[in-house]
Amino acid sequence: MKKTYRESRSRWKKGGRLALIAGVVMVMLVLQACGNNANSSGGSSPAAAGNTAEAAGGEASGNVPAVLNFGFIGSNKLNLPGGAEGWGFYKGIIQEELKKYGITEVKLTGFPNGPDQTESLISGRLDFGSLGDTPAIIAYASGAKTRLIGQSSAHTVGYLIGKKDGPKTVKELQGKTIAIQKGSFMHRYVVGLLKQEGVTDYKLVHMLIPDATAALARGDVDATTNSGVPALKLIEQGYTHLDDASSHPDLLGSSATVVSEEYLEKFPDFPEVWNAAREKALADLKQHEDEYYQFLAEIGDTTPELAKQVNPISDIKDTPFTEEGTKLLEGTKNFLVEEKLAKKDFNISDWQLQ
Fold first, then answer.
1. Which CA distances in Å does 132 have to 76, 136, 219, 286?
2. What are phi and psi of 245, to 5 degrees?
3. pLDDT (tens digit, 9 = 90+) per residue, 26-36?
4. Helices 185-196 and 133-141: crossing angle, nearest 10°?
């Protein structure tokens, strides 16, 4: 039957309205599905993110904890390490960089020695830390799940100090008692030194530096190890300067910045982020040398002149790893394995994260 114009127009309008309604419903369903997919794939709004934040130059991750726990060696009224790391925290440079990745607070903890710090790292109380190469190597060789992400220094000098009216040379330590910080870079220095000097009969006793210094003053030990400003102060007080590692390049210590594998699972890009923040702090430090040495004097309870003598800016490395530093690590690791201070041998390259 032939359709009139009015019938055709009426049917077209009805069909058009149905098509329009169907189209609107389809769009709404698609938008709802997209929203559900975004929520189920781990995306979140800033309010739901809680422990993360995003800023220019950084990518926030929902797994990055807001609090970062950092350990270092030493104790001072500012609760800060030296070097580019300490300067960066002191000036707030590092904190500002870390905020871009959701880290809103950095908790710093000072430790009397490396073994105590590695224990806290292994137990999970720390996320990462900077310490001497020897305790870091010993811990890794013992099964600590850490990765090495940098060496800020490769020129740490250990000193061997004798008691007043005691031994005058290293060879005179034959049959004597020496206070050391077991598992520290100074432990490695002293054992290596005595071996080079042919001293085979001696006794090592573990004492933290304050206790060792007191024992040296009483004459309970014949010599002790020390470093930096405290060592120079002992020499100024009349104690015998038997030796120091500056005369033995292969016995110098280096620093090690290590991070737990558990933290890396939460923040895989942390090594790159940390080293970039540290390099930014170092660049600023070099623009304020006098202020930096004043800062060192304050945390070391000394003078800027002595701080500059013991910790010159030239000793601070501007890259995570250097050929010099890696060579020291290899030598230290081989020595520790040979002396059975490290439980097993390993390849430094397997530990390094570059």
1. 18, 7, 28, 24
2. -70, -10
3. 433 333 433 33
4. 100
Contact in structure between 277 and 86 (CB atoms under 8 Å): no
Evaluate if residue 224 carries a pLDDT over 90: yes
**Tokens coding 258:** 């290590």
CB 177 within 8 A of CB 222: yes
Tokens, residue 119: 């224990």
Q: Which residues contact 140 (CB under 8 A, 6 or more apart)?
A: 146, 148, 258, 346, 351
Q: Around 261, how many Cα atoms within 13 Å sit in the side-chain half-sphere?
A: 8
User: Residues in the chain, how many?
Assistant: 354
In the chain, the percentage of residues whose pLDDT exceeds 70 is: 82
Question: How far apart (Å, rounded) are the C-alpha atoms in residues 102 and 31?
Answer: 30
Give the tens place of pLDDT for each residue, 64-78. Answer: 999 999 999 998 999
What percent of the chain clears pLDDT 90, i.e. is strictly above it?
77
Cβ partners under 8 Å of residue 195, min gap 6:
none
